[in-house]
Design brief:
The termini are close together. The chain is globular and about 40 Å long. The longest helix is centred in the first third of the chain and has 8 residues. The strands form two sheets. Strands 2-1-5 form a three-stranded antiparallel sheet, with no helix packed on it. A two-stranded antiparallel ribbon has the order 3-4. The protein has one helix and five strands; from the N terminus they run E-H-E-E-E-E. Helices cover about 10% and strands about 25% of the residues. A hairpin with a 2-residue loop joins strand 3 and strand 4. The protein is mainly beta and about 90 residues long.
């Protein structure tokens, strides 16, 4: 699976859609690949919050995160039981 996507919406448009308090300024990106930092929206104490995070999956059984390469695919059957965040993207396959 390719796993690349784009963000072409303005920071203001994404902030209006997700209604978080921060005012980040990030440029459009047209070839976002796994392991790159990506903007996400997550719940922190019941409030939506903007953050930059590295795209990848770190399994719960990993003992040494810095020594483990990030995975980019997960089984669909387990997605509903894992922690998730909203990734504001314009298009592509995530």
């Amino acid at each position: 699976m390719c796993g690349r996507y784009v963000i072409f919406s303005t920071p203001e448009a994404i902030r209006a859609l997700f209604r978080y308090g921060e005012q980040p300024n990030f440029p459009p990106r047209y070839n976002i690949a796994p392991t790159q930092p990506v903007p996400i929206v997550r719940l922190v104490d019941g409030m939506r919050s903007f953050a930059l995070m590295r795209w990848g999956l770190l399994p719960s059984w990993v003992e040494e995160p810095k020594a483990f390469p990030l995975l980019i695919n997960a089984r669909g059957e387990s997605c509903s039981t894992s922690r998730r965040s909203a990734t504001p993207c314009g298009g592509g396959v995530v």
